[in-house]
Amino acid sequence: MAGRKKRAGNPSPGPSGGPGAPSPTLLVRGGWILSMAPGGFQGHGDILVREGRIQEIGPDLPRPPGASLLDASGAAVLPGLVQAHLHLCQTLFRGLAEEMELLPWLQTRILPLEAAHDEKSIAASARLALTELLLSGTTAVQTMETVHHTQVVLEVLEEAGVTAVTGGCLIDQGEGTPPSMILPAGRALEAQLSLAREWNGKRSGRVEAALCPRFALSCSEGLLRECAAASREKGLRLHTHAAENKEEIRKVREITGLSDIAFLDGAGILGPATSLAHCVHVSPEDRARLRDRGVHVVTCPSANLKLASGIAPAAEYLDQGINLALGADGAPCNNRLDPWRETRLLSLLQKVLAGPAALPPGKALETATLGGARALGREKEIGALEKGKRADMVVVDLEAPWLGPGGSPETRLVFAAGPAEVRHLVLGGKTVVRDGKFLLWDPAEAAARAREELKKLLSRAKLPS
């Protein structure tokens, strides 16, 4: 495959180039660097990494004795991509919930399938998702999992080495929700707070627990208020869905007399620690609320198209000063977790809404990197290639026939690149993809385990055909 060819003269990984501990020293040599930092380095050069952090960026850096080398010639080097809205627990359900809008999709397929998860199936689902995500260049995620077994997802995220903000979804009501997923507000919240006490600031520090009320129709106002208070008191991030589907919005207004956004705002949910996924149908008044509260909007173009939800006004959000991030959502509403496809669609769909100059490639890449890092509250650590930041980076081949011969690196990446062009991936100085080969675990084994666990889950779920 053109995007994954072995390059002549590539050194062998050596003892510090494989999937073990981070290399003490790593030199990424000879790529076109897109730092994504305002005023940061852009051009041909090298990146020197020591102890998992970027030490220097520039042209013709000397190779320190004993340093591992990654060949980036003919490739772009950019920060690892950040996906700020995902459901790892849904990856087993790929292809099992087709041709439906949001509410029947949730009520007749997704929620019953989530309710049938056990620890083994959710681990297999998360591992399969992370295999796809890492091979496609994603190094940081914000995810919302199902009600139970969230500890298992945290463990898999920690093993993979990604930066992650995650939580089990909070549900205390909702039409069509399996009874096992509905928990009293206090019990549901305490389960997530317990995870935060165990994980936040502990272990590697890369993985943290957040509060994830599912969406307005599945949460009482009391639960939302308790989440908002806990977020403020304990410094926890909030992650929920809002304004995705017209019928959802109609039902929220019927019950509360308010729009999704106004209802969440009244409960105290909106703020600078909050990410709202989708925001497809948002009035000018509610957009002002999002801006004034400092909310992060996470757009999911493929999922919004597949569920016939609509097209989010992403370019307008950016024009109004609202931070925008990107996510593939879940496998059963996409069906890929491919950040390149989402970045391409983001830019193209905004051109339909706002004209051919709307959301140019550089801005789309910023959404997929620094915008996502801001949504996770990790912009001081990730999202740009700068001295002192965590060495999360993706090396993307620019020499495939469909990527050239002309055009800026940004244009080539956004409109023509895909997972096949990911040559190397580095997580905190540790090479986890080299020449397209995944080094953390066996991808075929992960896929086989997922197939095995799906059979058992479907037997438990007993869904009508």
How would you sum up the major sheet?
9 strands, mixed
Strand content: 15-25%
Structural class: alpha/beta
CATH architecture of the largest domain: Alpha-Beta Barrel
Number of domains: 2
Distance between the first and last residues' Cα:
39 Å
Q: Whole-number average pLDDT?
A: 94
Low-confidence stretches: 1-20
Annotated CATH homologous superfamily of the largest domain: Metal-dependent hydrolases
Q: Give me the Rg, rounded.
A: 21 Å
**Which fold name corresponds to the CATH topology of the largest domain?**
TIM Barrel
How many strands?
Answer: 18
Given the structure, what is the number of helices? 14
Name of the level-1 CATH class of the largest domain: Alpha Beta
Helical percentage: 25-40%
Shape: globular
Kindly report the oligomeric state of this protein.
single chain
Keywords:
single chain; 465 residues; alpha/beta; Urease, subunit C, domain 1; TIM Barrel; 2 domains; 9-stranded mixed β-sheet; 5-stranded parallel β-sheet; 36% helix; 21% strand; globular; disordered N terminus
What does this structure look like?
With 465 residues, the protein is of the alpha/beta class. It has 2 domains: 2-79 and 390-438, Urease, subunit C, domain 1; 81-375, Alpha-Beta Barrel (TIM Barrel), CATH 3.20.20.140. The protein has 14 helices and 18 strands. The protein has helices spanning 102-115, 119-135, 150-160, 185-199, 221-234, 246-256, 260-266, 284-293, 301-306, 314-319, 339-354, 361-375, 409-416, 443-461; strands at residues 25-34, 42-50, 53-58, 68-71, 75-79, 81-86, 138-145, 163-170, 207-209, 212-213, 238-242, 274-278, 296-299, 324-326, 393-397, 422-427, 430-434, 437-438. Strand 17 (430-434) and strand 18 form a beta hairpin. Helix 2 packs across helix 14 (443-461) and helix 11 packs across helix 13 (409-416). The longest helix is centred in the C-terminal third of the chain and has 19 residues, at 443-461. The protein is globular, with a radius of gyration of 21 Å. The two termini are 39 Å apart.
